[in-house]
Amino acid sequence: MTDTITFGQEISNLLHAAEGEPLKTCIQCGTCSGTCPVAGYMDNSPRQIIALINLGKKEQVLESNTFWYCASCYHCTVRCPQEINITELMYALKRYSIWKNRYKEGLIGPTFSEAFVKMIVRGGRSFEPVLATSYIFSFNTREFVQEIQGATELLLKGRLPLLPARIKRLENFRRMIGRIIPMGGLE
Amino acid sequence: MKEFAYFPGCSLEKMASSYHMSAMETTQKLGVKLNELDDWNCCGATTYFYIDELLAYTLCARNLAIAEKTGLDVVAPCSACYKNMFFTAAHLKKDEDLAEHVNFALEEDNLHFSGNVKVKHLIEVFAQDIGPDELKSKVTKPLEGIRIAPYYGCQIIRPQKEKEDVEQPQFFEELISAIGATPINYPLKMRCCGGSLIISSRTAALTMVRNLLQSAVDNQAAVIATACPMCQVNLEVYQQQVNLEFGTNFSVPVMYFTQLIGMALGIPNKKLGIGKEFVAMAPTPLAVETAWGLPRKTK
Ligand code: SF4
Ligand code: SF4
Ligand code: SF4
Ligand code: SF4
């Protein structure tokens, strides 16, 4: 009981290269939310998410679509007067939510990310990743653009004709990955 | 002759082959040699960072280690690759623990990264190593009178790398001026295109693309210039979607800055991948030439 850490500390620990608890220094000025091009679509604005974390509202944070809607544009980060890396925080929340296997119903982000990583671990290279646009596009199947949702489903089911260019030293590559993550988890 | 290690990234293999072609042609013409990295792997864009940070760093570090062996600075044409490589190199340099972990994994491929590689974006090679003055002196067919909207997007300038201007950068404008065209100033030149949200939130993504196109068009852009395959694809391919969704009528060519530079250097369109666009509405060389009075090319 004494050594349980708070939700805020837990999240701070996930922030790479951050000292102490940077979120605690947030002055709630709202610069991040004002800058964020996606704030209008988020359940909670970046500023609110930080407030919720600092208040220990874990459930509410994990229920939120905020970090899955973050486009990683770093606009908030370059403007925060407290130099809080808000984009990094959004990544941390994504990872946290994947680890805990807890995410808002209907969000495609987590499944999609995992499918993508598997694809690269197998092949070494992939077609264009994060932006579904891009790799759908890379097959020159213009129609897919009209049906991105459908195409993504196909991708997740492994039915898109993806033939990633494999790297030459694939065995070494796989062993290299094996030293980082147990392959069992990704196969 | 300046020489760099070159990490094309997976999107340049297919989707953005015109970027690759025009990068090769223009650098060669300007006395810069790009040597493609041997057996590189996909850097994973941002997705690895969602799942496993250490894996993400390791994947980037493998490419960095391969580059380090060449003793050259490494250049990436994709903004996402650039950002990932840049910050991986920076973190590994700073964080011994992390470097040790990563190098342990790299051993499996007989590689080691000791932090001695400088990472550059392709546009920096033009803006810094070549420089606008040198470029200007090589221009044979200035793109006079053409209004070009420089689109910086996100990851070339953000997060901040050193002390560079992240609010009002000008290097893209300077390159456009150097080829004789007119760089337009529009408020959204550094705003995110939102393309990565197309799966999680189509409305958000399309709205952001629309705002960008609108901002460029309101300022009479004839062409949008990009320095990233993802930005290019998002702005080009979603125009049709945006038009359907919002009843707009956008038809703005979105070209790689290397294609525009190539035209000004007198390189034939074909070698720049112009006319190879996947999307029908993309600018055919003819459309660009006639609509905006580009100098006619010899075949
Ligand atoms: S800009 Fe920084 S200090 Fe201001 S609310 Fe956002 S995170 Fe807090
Ligand atoms: S990085 Fe994410 S949270 Fe920050 S401004 Fe961009 S979209 Fe918003
Ligand atoms: S950022 Fe994208 S294009 Fe570049 S290598 Fe990584 S996954 Fe491929
Ligand atoms: S594709 Fe869009 S989100 Fe990605 S760097 Fe370019 S502008 Fe930003």
Could you walk me through the main structural features you see in this protein, from its secondary elements to its overall organization?
The complex is a heterodimer of chains A (187) and B (299). Chain A has 187 residues and is mainly alpha-helical. Chain A has two domains: 7-99, Orthogonal Bundle (Fumarate Reductase Iron-sulfur Protein, Chain B, domain 2); 109-178, no CATH class. Chain A has twelve helices and no strands. Chain A starts with 6 loop residues before the first helix and ends in a 9-residue tail after the last helix. Chain B has helices at residues 10-13, 17-29, 47-51, 53-70, 79-94, 96-106, 122-130, 132-138, 171-178, 202-218, 229-246, 257-264, 285-292, and strands at 2-6, 32-36, 74-76, 119-121, 147-151, 182-183, 223-226, 254-256. The longest helix of chain B is centred in the N-terminal third of the chain and has 18 residues, at 53-70. Chain B has a four-stranded parallel β-sheet, sandwiched between helices. Chain B has a four-stranded parallel β-sheet with strand order 6-5-7-8, sandwiched between helices. Chain B contains 13 helices and eight strands. In chain B, strand 7, helix 11 (229-246) and strand 8 (254-256) form a beta-alpha-beta unit. The complex binds iron/sulfur cluster (SF4) (4 copies). The site of one iron/sulfur cluster (SF4) has 15 residues of chain A, from helix 2 and helix 3.
